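Practice problem 4.
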């Protein structure tokens, strides 16, 4: 307890992209050949140095080094250890920057490394490829160069890397019968060399991120922690801080307390309940880093409340107590100060990465006995204002939620009745054709919207331009012979932002960018208050589109779960409650569309699966409230109004009953990239041993028959082959024909050709079914390979 006035503060990582997305723009220029490698390197160094300087200036005890990457930090780790995908044939020790980008983006011979979501975040990492032959003999020295640079800048350095077990867990090994855990000794040996080198450089701490501890891990992986960290502990003078985050690791507390590590970081924001467990078990001579500043959300912390939590820990641990962000700040935007369009009150409720450094600084000073009463008072005033603000709390929304009728999430009749009523109303042909909603967002459309937003063209002018676009899209679909056309979504910038802008309770930032993958960033809306829908949002566009065709126009909405998932949402009430509020707003829109004569309405839920908690034990709870929210949005309509939903990912097996429980009349899903294999899950044929086994999806299904992620035009035979495969598992009466996802990222020529081929394939299939013939199919599998399990077209 001697050093009680020496609490340490640190962040687990800082966003690398830059407050103005400098890294994105520089990297993209480098790809286009507009700047040299030297110029790119300069931009990277400037950003790293700036972010370290901010950490030092805020009074943090370390700058965190190793969180920078030109594309992705997991790829960087593979490059550091020398474990590159063998198929590229690169020399790991001499990997050049262009080659590094080829691993991430593919080249003429090799497809890119697979990309997938980092735990339950919207950050996508590149999946390292392992085999029994993978070696870890060392690779590029970038990590050490950055550390030396930080040391030269006079900083106290804490290095950070993914922990060896998490690194291996995130890798894939497709070799039959080979467990990647067998590679652990070689991985540990490689980390050992890294740690020794860090010791030689004089680095005092390395943070090894092991978020897999928050999952429900298999026993052999848990057991591996003991030996792994015993090996790493004795390496030179560098001390190991094992970092966990995103959920509780309380079940591993005894194991973690016994490991020969210098310290542990736990997430007190996502899993505050685990603090009680660690309070009783954590040894007083080891560092415990408490993550109490939210690294996943943009709200200013309630500093007095956090201090209240920290006080007893401070008395117990003294200088062994560290305070930190819950996880890396990679998941929040960089700097609130540049937001000119947000009002001062709203800004006082928010903290981006740079502001979170200041919060840590205030906490540290308070615990170390310095006078920060003015800062604390200011913080308390803002917190109080937020708790009581009329901008946040809308009594009408609360009253409506409190008085919901038990049946609010139920359609009037079961599916079979609805199906009969809908057939009578629409009289669609066998294998009805449709698309997922968006048509090409051309340069002209984007330019028109940008000019309108800048106030350069009038609302009338903009509306006329969008109507012309809608008319074009409707006319093209009629010419192609699509049975259920759409209006094309020309008026939408983004499927969440478009609705957020028209709903009460949302705010928008100018620079609130968060890295999604590589150079790509997203700017999620800020959902700060009770949600309601003052006016219809899509009715005028859909009605206009319907007036142009005799076919049933499909209305197009984004679902409540997706709006929730792709926004920064309030932390002062459960997510499920916020989701119900959005659901009611969407329900109002659905009912208004119906009243305006739109008989088919699609409610997109591409982010439904993303909301799944990390621990499977909590899945049922999430699926229950998320499914109910979707049903609330969809259930206000008559039997003969047809509700569609759409999802674009390919892992359905384990949540299929929950998807069926959403009770959409039609679901369109991504299937072409998996060669229709996931459809087996819908037919009860799967043999995975998971929950979908033997479960037959009861309603209508539109499995995507072509991949929209590439400009390649699939041939009639290829689509026919997929249709035939689909018909093996879904009866023709329940099968729809459509692409995998929306077409907004495509150009017109390939869109028209691909849809024409899709219609031609459908005609052939219909004729064969009518005549009771077998479909004649070219059995060669088309050679497209596109990777990643998540659709990133959002
Ligand atoms: N309706 C949306 C579109 O077509 C769906 C997008 C998505 O699923 N990500 O663009
Ligand atoms: Zn999609």
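Answer key:
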């Amino acid at each position: 307890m001697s050093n009680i006035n020496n609490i340490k503060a640190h962040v687990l990582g800082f966003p690398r992209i830059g407050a103005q997305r400098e890294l994105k723009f520089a990297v993209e220029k480098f790809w286009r050949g507009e700047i040299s490698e030297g110029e790119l390197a300069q931009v990277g160094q400037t950003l790293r140095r700036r972010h370290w300087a901010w950490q030092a200036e805020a009074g943090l005890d370390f700058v965190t080094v190793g969180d920078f990457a030109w594309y992705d930090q997991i790829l960087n780790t593979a490059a550091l250890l020398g474990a590159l995908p063998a198929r590229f044939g690169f020399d790991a020790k001499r990997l050049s920057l262009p080659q590094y980008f080829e691993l991430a983006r593919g080249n003429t011979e090799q497809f890119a490394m697979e990309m997938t979501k980092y735990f339950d975040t919207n950050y996508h990492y590149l999946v390292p490829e392992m085999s029994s032959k993978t070696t870890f003999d060392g690779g590029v020295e970038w990590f050490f160069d950055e550390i030396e640079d930080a040391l030269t800048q006079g900083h106290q350095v804490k290095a950070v890397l993914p922990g060896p077990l998490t690194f291996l867990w995130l890798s894939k090994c497709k070799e039959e019968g080979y467990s990647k855990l067998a590679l652990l000794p070689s991985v540990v040996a490689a980390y050992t060399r890294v740690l020794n080198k860090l010791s030689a450089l004089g680095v005092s701490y390395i943070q090894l991120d092991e978020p897999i501890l928050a999952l429900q891990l298999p026993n052999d992986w848990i057991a591996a922690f003991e030996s792994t960290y015993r090996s790493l502990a004795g390496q030179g003078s560098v001390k190991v801080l094992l970092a966990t985050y995103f959920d509780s690791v309380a079940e591993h507390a005894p194991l973690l307390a016994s490991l020969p590590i210098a310290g542990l970081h736990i997430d007190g924001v996502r899993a505050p309940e685990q603090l009680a467990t660690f309070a009783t078990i954590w040894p007083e001579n080891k560092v415990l880093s408490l993550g109490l500043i939210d690294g996943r959300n943009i709200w200013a912390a309630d500093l007095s409340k956090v201090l209240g939590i920290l006080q007893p820990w401070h008395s117990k641990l003294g200088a062994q107590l560290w305070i930190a962000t819950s996880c890396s700040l990679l998941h929040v935007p960089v700097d609130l100060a540049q937001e000119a369009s947000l009002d001062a009150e709203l800004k006082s409720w928010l903290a981006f990465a740079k502001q979170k450094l200041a919060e840590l600084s205030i906490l540290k000073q308070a615990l170390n006995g310095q006078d920060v009463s003015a800062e604390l008072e200011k913080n308390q005033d803002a917190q109080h204002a937020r708790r009581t603000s009329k901008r946040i709390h809308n009594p009408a929304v609360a009253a409506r939620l409190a008085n919901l009728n038990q049946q609010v999430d139920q359609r009037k009749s079961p599916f079979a009745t609805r199906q009969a009523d809908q057939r009578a109303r629409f009289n669609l042909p066998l294998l009805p054709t449709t698309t997922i909603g968006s048509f090409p967002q051309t340069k002209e459309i984007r330019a028109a919207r940008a000019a309108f937003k800048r106030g350069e063209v009038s609302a009338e002018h903009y509306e006329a331009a969008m109507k012309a676009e809608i008319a074009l899209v409707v006319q093209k679909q009629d010419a192609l012979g699509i049975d259920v056309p759409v209006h094309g979504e020309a008026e939408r910038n983004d499927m969440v932002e478009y609705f957020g802008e028209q709903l009460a309770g949302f705010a928008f930032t100018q620079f609130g960018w968060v890295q999604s993958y590589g150079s790509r960033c997203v700017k999620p809306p800020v959902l700060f208050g009770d949600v309601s829908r003052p006016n219809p949002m899509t009715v005028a566009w859909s009605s206009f589109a319907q007036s142009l065709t005799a076919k049933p126009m499909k209305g197009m909405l984004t679902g409540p779960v997706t709006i929730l998932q792709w926004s920064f949402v309030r932390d002062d009430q459960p997510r499920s409650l916020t989701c119900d509020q959005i659901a009611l707003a969407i329900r109002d829109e659905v009912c208004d569309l119906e009243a305006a004569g739109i008989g088919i309405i699609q409610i997109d839920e591409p982010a439904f699966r993303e909301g799944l908690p990390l621990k499977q034990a909590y899945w049922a709870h999430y699926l229950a409230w998320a499914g109910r929210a979707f049903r609330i949005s969809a259930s206000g309509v008559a039997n003969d109004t047809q509700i569609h939903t759409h999802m674009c990912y390919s892992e359905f097996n384990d949540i299929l009953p929950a998807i069926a429980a959403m009770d959409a009349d039609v679901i369109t899903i991504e299937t072409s990239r998996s060669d229709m294999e996931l459809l087996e899950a819908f037919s009860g044929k799967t043999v995975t041993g998971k929950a979908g086994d033997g479960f037959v999806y009861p309603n209508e299904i539109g499995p995507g028959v072509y991949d929209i992620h590439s400009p390649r035009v699939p041939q009639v035979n290829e689509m026919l082959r997929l249709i035939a495969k689909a018909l093996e598992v879904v009866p023709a009466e329940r099968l729809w024909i459509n692409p995998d996802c929306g077409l907004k990222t495509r150009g017109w020529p390939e869109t028209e050709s691909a849809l024409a081929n899709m219609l031609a394939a459908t005609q052939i299939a219909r004729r064969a079914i009518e005549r009771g013939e077998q479909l004649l199919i070219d059995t060669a599998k088309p050679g497209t390979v596109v990777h990643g399990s998540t659709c990133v077209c959002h």
